[in-house]
Amino acid sequence: MRDLRPLFDPRSVAVLGASDDPTKWGQWIAAGALRGAHRRDVWLVNRKGGQILGREAYTSLAEIPGPPDLVVISLPESAFEQAIDDSLAAGAKAIVAITAGLGEIDDAGKAREAAVVERVRAAGAVMVGPNCLGVYDAAAELDVGSNSFTPGSIGIISQSGNLALELSLLAAEYGVGVSRFTSLGNQADIEAAELVGSYAADENTRVIGVYCEDFRDGRAFARAGAAAVAAGKQVVLLAAGGSEAGARAAASHTGALASDSAAIEAACRAAKILRVATPKELIDRALASLSSDRPRGRRVAIVGDGGGTGVVTADLVTEAGLDLPDLSDGLKSRLSEIAPTIITANPVDLAGAGEVDFWNFERVLNAVLGSGEVDSVIFTGYFGGYSEMNRDFAPKEMAVAAAIVDAAQASGRPLLTQAMYWCSAPAQVLRDGGVPVYRDIEGVVATLAHLVEQGEGFAPGVSEVGAPASPIDGDGYFESRELLAAGGVPFGAARRANSIDAARAAAVELGYPVVLKALGLLHKSDAGGVALGLADDAAVAAAATDMHVRLAPRGYSVETFVDTTGGVELIVGCRRDPRFGPLVLVGLGGVYAELLRDVRLALAPAGVDELEALLLSLRGAGILTGARGRTPVDVRAAAEAAAALSRVAAAHPEIAEIEINPLLVTPDGAAGLDARIVLA
User: What is the model's pTM?
Assistant: First the structure.
């Protein structure tokens, strides 16, 4: 990992393009840089010189009195290359390029960026941008961007400056601030993955929030995210890329089903990154991730001081697929001993007992959290509002909040809170102690459900692709079968035939009934190029003649007929994503694969255990496991075939798409019935 200290905690900063005009970027950046002038040298550079914000401005970087660790460039694109050369000549170790109008515009701009990056790296420096909004580090008191942030513990990496600002404002509503911010810009040099690694090593950053539109090297991002999570820094990702436009252009079923969004989801699952869809969800997940406790299962208890909020919360918890278990008689007795008015069902309703004695909130929560009967607790209601009602209540309510924090920490179980007065002093005590406090119950339940799903999911880590094998010679049907069979995928017997008579002879050799396929067609079934269960020579001759007239195939494949009764047809395939590399897909298959769209993806190569778990997570998994009296099929064998295919695909970068559809899985095993390759 490169040293990013000069970027986030420089000994000196030069602002190139500093201005005294309050409407210009150069003035905003200069003002922010000067706020840290008590910690470092700050030099303002403007070709006209003069005074800027009460400071003498230098006319060039060559005039400043020492080498700048960090140079911030706020100049037009016409001056970009010269500014880079001047910065490196002055000794800059880090550059923040605000300049726009380059790689985001056209290929010529990308070429200019690439040439600049070569010079930056050759000098041993690093660059953020261009086309970025700056950098902020609370602990280092560095603020060289368009907006300031409230200091805190959430690190933000974003390709959108406005979205980063929205995230900071949402967090500030809950009294949580930003430890570090980087605007990605065009990622010409420093990319999202490198920043995630740097944030993970930052002792002041506890959660990493990322908004990304282009990962560049998605596999590297996933590895960095996995390492951050392993180090105790949860990564929460808001990712663009849900479009299915690219999938529509794919040649195979696998390509059509493996969308950009599904690729991101597969990478997040492997790395234990929490993926969200909105800025609010990112902050909701980040709040809960500030605590080290995670739910160990789906059992939830609701504790509140109002029947209505308890009922609404119970409905949401149930809809989210979480469990609301009945509490034991022993726990109910302990709750009744605290106050006889308490309703001891789940939800638990203090029913006024909190108003009688604020400490009853702590006593009830302590009893439920410590009971071992639930995996997490949702606390909802008026707590925190008493201090708003009467200032005299504040010291006691804050003391109760501190005791609730202690109870949650001692239990090792997550406690998530929704409070009408989410900004009150007692609420902030809870939050400071690692108990997230939300303004809406929907955010609480959705966050808890997401954490439960993450804990239950199979997270194998980010697989390594490895060295490529020798390129394959062809992409025909038999080449596909032979490549996959050599990799460990079972297939039935088949013979290649170049004529109708050869097809008839092959059928005799294999024994009836047989299957006849027309070669040279990508989607043979859709075109009427597959004839099943041909029982004799006459049937084979008739089918081959029909295909010859209609399709003019390159030849035929004659195959042993496999009885599909009692089996399930799956689709297993891989496509190579330009950002995340090879992806393996498993799902319900056959001719209705794209109609059903019941599939799961993983980074390839993938292991058998991971793929078996994905198959069992399909919406239609009951078909595999014996729903409605069916005989269960050999899911493990299907997973082994999928794992073998994923190894083949990972070893051959020249393959854009490869699939088996269908893969027939029966109670006794699995076998490929058709295969295809699409070369890049």
Answer: 0.90
